[in-house]
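In response to the reviewer comment on reproducibility (Comment 2.3), we provide here a single inverse folding case reported in full, input and output, so that an independent group could reproduce the run without further information from us. The structure tokens appear first.
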């Protein structure tokens, strides 16, 4: 029985921010996505030590997970944050386009919005316990043309792509990766919209919150 319990502990230690609940009671009806997106890259976690974790070590690990989850939830843009953008909460969840599918799985949260023009905006914020978000972002490769985006205050790294009329910007800080994706009638409209959203999202990242 001790061996079985130990194996369970190793498995649990290798899961990055999985199974965290309580977001449904948060304001703005944040969407929580626990199923891995088809085609998404995978991340690896260093093997756990063969020695059982001490109570102090378990408490520290639990605290670290909770801190990252809090940072993820705090990085999701709210109605108040987007008051000047002319968007309203979407009645249905927007589908993930190709670039979001390339983001390594973690514990993503987010929300979907629509513009009066019919364009759509989706944010996906993901936390990673085992490595900095800048390292995760460096591994992401999306199809389409690269989009040049100025690094906004609060972000440690930024990358962007446009494929068809969908443009995506990924911002990294601490252990949080914030993804912004706009689909519009043209690539230029989508690019302008997602670039205008990047500074708002960067302000919500953990480094910006101090």
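Designed residues, in position order:
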């Amino acid at each position: 029985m001790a061996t079985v319990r130990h194996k369970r502990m190793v498995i649990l230690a290798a899961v990055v921010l999985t199974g965290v609940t309580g977001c449904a009671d948060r304001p703005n009806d944040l969407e929580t996505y626990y199923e891995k997106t088809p085609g998404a890259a995978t991340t690896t976690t260093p093997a756990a030590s063969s020695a059982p974790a001490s109570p102090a070590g378990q408490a520290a690990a639990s605290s670290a997970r909770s801190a990252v989850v809090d940072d993820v939830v705090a990085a999701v843009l709210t109605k108040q944050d987007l008051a000047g953008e002319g968007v309203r909460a979407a009645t249905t969840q927007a589908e993930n386009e190709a670039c979001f599918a390339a983001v390594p799985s973690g514990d993503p949260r987010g929300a979907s919005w629509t513009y009066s023009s019919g364009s759509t905006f989706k944010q996906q914020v993901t936390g990673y316990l085992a490595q900095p978000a800048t390292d995760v972002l460096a591994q992401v490769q999306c199809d389409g043309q690269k989009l040049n985006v100025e690094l906004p205050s609060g972000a440690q790294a930024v990358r962007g792509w446009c494929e068809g009329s969908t443009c995506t910007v990924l911002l990294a800080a601490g252990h949080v990766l914030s993804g912004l994706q706009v689909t519009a009638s043209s690539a230029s409209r989508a690019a302008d919209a997602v670039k205008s959203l990047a500074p708002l999202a960067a302000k919500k990242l953990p480094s910006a919150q101090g």
